[in-house]
Amino acid sequence: xxxxxxxxxxxxxxxxxxxxxxxxxxxxxxxxxxxxxxxxxxxxxxxxxxxxxxxxxxxxxxxxxxxxxxxxxxxxxxxxxxxxxxxxxxxxxxxxxxxxxxxxxxxxxxxxxxxxxxxxxxxxxxxxxxxxxxxxxxxxxxxxxxxxxxxxxxxx
Length: 156
Fold this sequence. Notes:
33% of the residues lie in helices and 15% in strands. It has five helices and three strands, in the order αββαβααα. Helix 1 (15-24) crosses helix 2. Belongs to the PSMG1 family.
C-alpha cells in the first residue's frame, strides 16, 4: 500500500512527468489505484437544482481495467475531472492499470470533517480489500482535517 498525499500545486505541464515518476516506483502488475480528490460543488454541472444539504457527495470515474464496483455512482456528463486525478487516471487507462477516482464535491474550500466523512465508504472498502484490521477511525480523520486547517488562511 502506497499513500501519496499531495498538498502542493503541480503545474499542468508537470502532471505527466509527476505521474510517470510516481508510477515508475511501482510494480504495475496486479496494481489497483484509488484516487481521492475534491472540488467545489459550484463546478458540478447538472440540470437539477442542488441544495446546500446535498453537498458533500461523491462521484466516481474508473479505467477500463477496473473490474470492481465503485461505492458511488459514476460522474455524469458534461462533468470532467482535471488536474492530478485526471493525469493519474489517464496514465492508468493507457497502461491498463485498474484505477478509480472518487471525486467529492463539497461546499467548503478545503477538507473538513464532513467532507472527509464522505470518503468513509471508500476507506472501508479499501480496508477490506487490503485486509486491514479496521477502517480509519473518526479520530484519524479528525487529525487529517486539523493538519490541513492549520495551513488554511480563510478565516484569518
